[in-house]
Amino acid sequence: MGVDLVGHGGASFNWSAWRSSLQVAEAFGWHAAGTIMPHNEIDRIWEGGYFSNDCQEVTDDDAHALGLAIHRAVTALMRWSRFLRQAVKVDLMTKRMIHHEDTQAVHG
After folding, report:
1. More confident residue, 41 or 88
2. Are 50 and 15 a contacting pair, CB within 8 Å?
3. For residue 34, what pLDDT is reported?
4. Alpha-carbon distance 85 to 4, whole Å?
């Protein structure tokens, strides 16, 4: 079982991935606006949840805000990844310099 996102294309996530995606979006500034009750559910109290298979919808604004938050998360991960790669390169350069200095000290 999963979540089907339908719009300009569409995608499928399992529940765990969907929940994680929303948690990441919240961590990067998304505020859930709640879902819109499906058209066939007129006699039901609707709580606006994101975790059911009721063909609920989200507003364009909510979807846009979610996308922006996920974009901020991806951008942050890319920057962090670049930082980690730089740190490794600096570390390797430092190791080479120390090795060179040690070699000079031993062999003159």
Report:
1. 41
2. no
3. 93
4. 35
User: How would you class 30 by CB atoms within 10 Å of its CB: exposed for 0-12, middle for 13-18, buried for 19 or more?
Assistant: buried
Q: What is the largest CA-CA distance in the chain?
A: 89
18, two tokens? 């969907």
Place of tokens 């009750």: 37
Q: Which token pair is 69?
A: 């938050």
Partners of residue 11 on adjacent β-strands = 5
Extended strands (E) in the chain:
2-5, 11-14
* Predicted structure pTM score: 0.68
Rounded Cα distance between 38 and 53, Å, is: 10
